[in-house]
Amino acid sequence: MSESSKSAAAEAQELERSYKLAEIVRQRQRTLEVLSLKSGERVLDVGCGVGFLTHGMALKVGEAGQIIGIDKNPEMISHAQKRCESLRQTGFHVGDAAQLPAKNETVDAVSCTQVLLYVNDVSKVLSEMMRVLKPGGRIVIVETDWRGVVLNSTDDDLTKQIFSSWDSAVPSPNLPVHLRTLLKKHGFSKIQVEAVPILNTEYSPSNFSHGMMEWITKNAEKQGVFNKTQRKVFLADLEERGRSDSYFFCVNRFLFSAKK
Q: Which domain holds residue 54?
């Protein structure tokens, strides 16, 4: 297996783990509530990952409907297909968010969770969503404001540098503050925004921030914020705060909904 294949497989496995966490389950439930899917509807799940949301949406639209999951990572698609193998109303494509596999005005709804920050041209993706949606069709987009993280740590300056390093790791950091304007520019209406906070006061593998801090500090190490030894010291401090009941982490995700 090539290094890129190993990386794709590891990414899919990590998503399997994190999407079962209580905080992400609540986010997914809220996404389904806002989508308000009906029997027989046709939906695109852009950046479907390992298929948790796809599965939930398929149950909502029933066998008369159709859910199409799209992801650029073939390993994600493999996991999603397995998860939804008993649901005939699901189909999956390895593909690009900027080239959606649907004809003009043939889709009732589009979902897109934690995808657009990785996209080089967000406007092109939004144009594609507008193209495939039927008149009156709706979208739901979930993105995170990593610049707004609150973390109780020994070194506040280092913490800021760790999260700031994310800006150079993705094409579209700090996207939530710009997304409402972009949606209006592309002709979407009835735009609503709500916060979906992720709050942890324990540092344990059973909560979101434990895995996230492993991941974000690895990125910071790659970006030269600190070395491997310093990273271990930083994470050890978080472990100690967890043991002493002084750990505190909060970040906001934002759920955008709109109509064509």
A: 3-259
